[in-house]
Amino acid sequence: MHELLPGEAMTIRRDPAMVALIADQQGVSYPLPPYSPHELFPEYSWRRDAIGSSQSNASTDVYGMVRTAFFLLGLDREHFGTASWNPLSAIITPGDSVLIKPNLVFDTNNSGCGPECLVTHGSVVRAVADYAALAMGNKGRLLLGDAPVQACSFDTALKISGMDDVVEYLRGHGISMGVQDFRNTAVKEGPLGVPSRLGHRSHSNDGCIEVPVDSLSALSPLDAHVDKYRVTRYDPDAMSKYHRAGVHKYLVSASALASDAIISIAKMKTHKKAGVTGALKNSVGITADKECLPHHRAGSPSESGDEYRRKNWSKRMCSHMLDRENRTEGRLGRLMLHFGARASWAGARLLGVDTTWEGSWPGNDTLWRTVLDLNRILIYADKKGRLMREPQRKVLFLVDGIVAGEGEGPLSPLPRPTGIIIAGFWAPTVDAVMATVMGLDWKQIPVISHALKARDALGIEVDAKNITVVSNKDSLNGPLTLKHKMFSFVPPRHWESIRVPEEHRP
After folding, report:
1. Confidence band for 354, pLDDT divided at 50, 70 and 90
2. Do residues 238 and 372 make contact, with C-beta atoms less than 8 angstroms apart?
3. The pTM of the whole model exceeds 0.90
4. How many domains in the chain?
5. With contact defined as beta carbons under 8 Å apart, do 142 and 105 qualify?
6. Where does residue 301 rank: exposed (0-12), middle (13-18), buried (19+ CB within 10 A)?
7. How would DSSP label each residue in 318-345?
8. Residue 257's domain spans which residues?
9. pLDDT at position 332 over 80
10. Residue 294: CA atoms inside 13 Å, Cβ hemisphere, count?
């Protein structure tokens, strides 16, 4: 099936600098439910009945690609090829609480394209869940959970991703798999694009815990400007409950913090505020309220903001009206302010100003800090929400790039079939490989470049020169270089500078 490196040539431990890159560009497409493997692997004999029952030879063997990634990362290598191979036993023991954290960002692709490039696909989750259940030995708790945007229908997101098929299949085979919507509140889109006020509690939530980061926060250097923190469509005053001078805290899912192990499965996709969304950005989905997530700062850099590139009165007026809309309770008032903001924005466009907006440009100096804080919490916050010196859980990162997303991600991506699975033990190195594969310069993407140097925040600092790729393709093995530029993704508007020049062709 896949080209494998000779086992005798490999001595692999859980190395944060090592990233598995699995490529299969033959007939790139997702398999059909229930996403069983294309062949009977020795360790799979405990569920023989499902082998190939609904598979098409034309579809990508996603299950086999995930399995190859585990092998190349050195997980339980001595038993590989035998019935006793148990790769996730390196991070999961019987009785553990295990969270599988996909990216279920939204239930509709606003580009008009299908969901395959929008959300983590169920076929990747199926393979991971099978091996997690094997490691757990039918003991402990296996949970699928995420916090999509507040306007998302969680049930619809499960359906379009194929994850409802995975859950149904596993439960039908005696594996207890819980499902949780981590959001504390949800919102419905109102008439003419004006959302209803927050306040509808979402289902299946086990509660949430405030995690104080305070002076350790990557946002601390901006404490003189905490009043400028914004997240689109949310009351800016609510942000002050979580972020003010000397105080930085996040409302995090109690179930995520209760986990002994987390397997994060991101989507390979561009992102208009972060450049890309991958392993690092996927940590945002452990939070229960979006009001605790600074995404940008109001105003231009000359006004201590990063909302847009240059100072402009029309944009300032538009931003002011949006703030008032988000603070207003009445539907009529919100509607009037919404259209007032749109009129101000139209005026700015007519005057020919640049169209940077809402922090959607490389000058966004806020969002990467929030993402860094959440990655610290993911690893170091204990079950009560206290930041500890030692890691509190084991985390494995995967990226689903079978059908990736380019252009105006994360909510309006265009499909880019790539046939890629990426996996590793440290989010920054996984994302550096992902960006390079996409043909994007990770050094120009703040969320990746800052995270790679964040020893104080994440406890690890990896010299980029030491990032090493292990692959099923011999040509891709070795230190991360431009030879790993496999594609030329279209970046989001205003992020053109992160694109690796075309002369650097793979």
Report:
1. confident
2. no
3. yes
4. 1
5. no
6. middle
7. HHHHHHHHHH--SHHHHHHHHHHHHHHH
8. 7-219+245-295+365-498
9. no
10. 35
